Amino acid sequence: MKSVLVCGAGGFIGGHLVRRLKREGYWVRGVDLKKHEFAETEADDFVIGDLRDQSLVREVVDRKFDEIYQLAADMGGAGYIFTGDNDADVMHNSATINLNVLDAAYKRNCKRIFYSSSACMYPAYNQEDPDNPNCREDSAYPAAPDSEYGWEKLFSERLYLSYNRNHGMESRVARYHNIFGPQGTWDGGKEKAPAALCRKIARAKSGDSIEIWGDGEQTRSFLYVDECLEGTIRLTRSDFTGPVNVGSEEMVTINQLAMMIADVAGKKIELEHIPGPLGVRGRNSENTLISERLGWSPSQPLRTGLENTYEWIERQVKANAPAAA
Questions:
Q1: pTM for this one?
Q2: How far apart are CA 259 and CA 171, in angstroms?
Q3: Cβ distance 107 to 60 under 8 Å?
Q4: Cβ contact 102:130 at 8 Å
């Protein structure tokens, strides 16, 4: 039986990935600071530990795994990434994790390792026009990410690719574009836009208003988690190194996203625009390269993923609502 290590298995994407790999018949070890908040892990072995600790990483990478998926990072939504308050933690924590995991994999001769980078590494100067952002893979340089999170992702991409060149590793690098779905963070400050809007709308009554940071005309694309897993696994098992975008080309404004969720919920809502951290003005996945090299592109419309996600978050909101007096 082939064995797989999933770093970040207690997180949103990692939890879904473990489940997918178990369905495919793999023996899976997961590792994270904590167990999954919303579901029991299906990993054969789950290690609770800190991947910033080099000795812990050596214990976890104790064999030649057939595949390693490195998803672990210090991250969150705009309210966590773009305020500047968490920059030192984001850079130190994520870089340390990547240095530890990659070197341990190399020393155990685990050649095939996937790294989840982010579209946040693209230059801010190519994302100023919300209608025409440029996120082609070859647009990454001259580098100018809009956040320290993006700079760390760019550094770690180069780290993994350096190990390919110098140590014969077979790293695969994907640039994720706003992955969303059920069983992800939906409250507390680290949630991303789809989850935050689902929460706000689930708590609202028809006719209420919800708050949107900025004018809401900033654009993004959002990829449902099942689609993300398909792109991730195809890349990992291919002969293509990347970096490559894993995202949707269905670009919407944040206002449009909110109104689509409200329609899914069957509610009429008003949008109240307030100051807040925004990130770049426009961002959209460009999927020519992944289509050419892997013969894959997302097949599911945004609304379908939002229907699944809203239903799950609505249940969380109801389950966590204060009891009536």
A1: 0.94
A2: 40
A3: no
A4: no
Question: What token pair was written down for 151?
Answer: 């700079």
193-220+250-283+301-319 CATH, one of 1.10.1740.10, 3.40.50.1100, 3.40.50.970, 3.90.25.10: 3.90.25.10
Long-range contacts of 166-170 (CB under 8 A, 24+ apart): 167/106, 168/111, 169/102, 169/105, 169/106, 169/111, 169/113, 170/111, 170/112, 170/113, 170/241
Average pLDDT over residues 56-60: 98
Who contacts 203 (Cβ-Cβ below 8 Å, separation ≥6)?
317
Q: Can you tell me the distance from the alpha carbon of 109 to that of 117, in angstroms, rounded to the nearest whole number? A: 22
Confidence tier at 53 by pLDDT (50, 70, 90): very high
Residue with tokens 């670009």: 251
Q: Which of 26, 106, 115, 149 is catalytic?
A: 149
Average confidence (pLDDT) over 35-45: 95
DSSP sequence for 274-311: E------SB-----HHHHHHHS----S-HHHHHHHHHH
Q: What is the DSSP string of 194-240?
A: HHHHHHHHHHSPTT-EEEEETTS--EE--EEHHHHHHHHHHHHTSS-
State yes or no: is 224 an active-site residue: no
Q: For 107-137, write each residue's pLDDT tens digit.
A: 999 999 999 999 999 999 999 999 999 999 9
**Which superfamily, per CATH, for 3-180+222-246?**
NAD(P)-binding Rossmann-like Domain (3.40.50.720)
